[in-house]
């Protein structure tokens, strides 16, 4: 069995989508990041970085219990374990390139764009502009790559498309105030809609809905989500 440490945010959503696509049995373990549960010692033993998602495979390589953290690492691990959604062998270098583009570029810049537009104090116009424009630049790079293509890599649906879906689902927050957030990027919009129309995507959206995750944005939440903004306790 695989234990899946989850919170309903973009990076865990990618992994939820893989589990649903592969019909891979897993046990969802909620981690309420607004309550600071990601900082508890038991979870830090699984992911020292204190972030979700993370998994523990009780039947890992050699029958050994195996932890994996970071959404891209998890997607690669699960794809390798199941032999699914890796595309053709000859496309593997391209797959790795786009996965890391998403992991180091589109995802983080999207996250920071959302942070500075919704969570940061007012008056940080440079940061708002910097992160939003860089997120949009990554959108443009991927949109141009997708011209004439159905999927990001090769001719089949892969973990790269799953990875993109997780953050593209939040485009309306990344491009705050835009009437049609993906409208200027028609190829990217088509990719998102293609993935989002899959039955597994609807099932992935339901993961964790039976758990009462905290939704109040109060001081406890801010300290839990952005601990580096606060001095350490004496």
Automatic annotation (TrEMBL):
Residues 1-86 form the GST N-terminal domain. This is Glutathione S-transferase family protein. Residues 88-216 form the GST C-terminal domain. Transmembrane segments: none annotated. It holds the Pfam family GST_C. Residues 203-223 have a biased composition (Basic and acidic residues). Residues 202-234 are annotated as: Disordered.
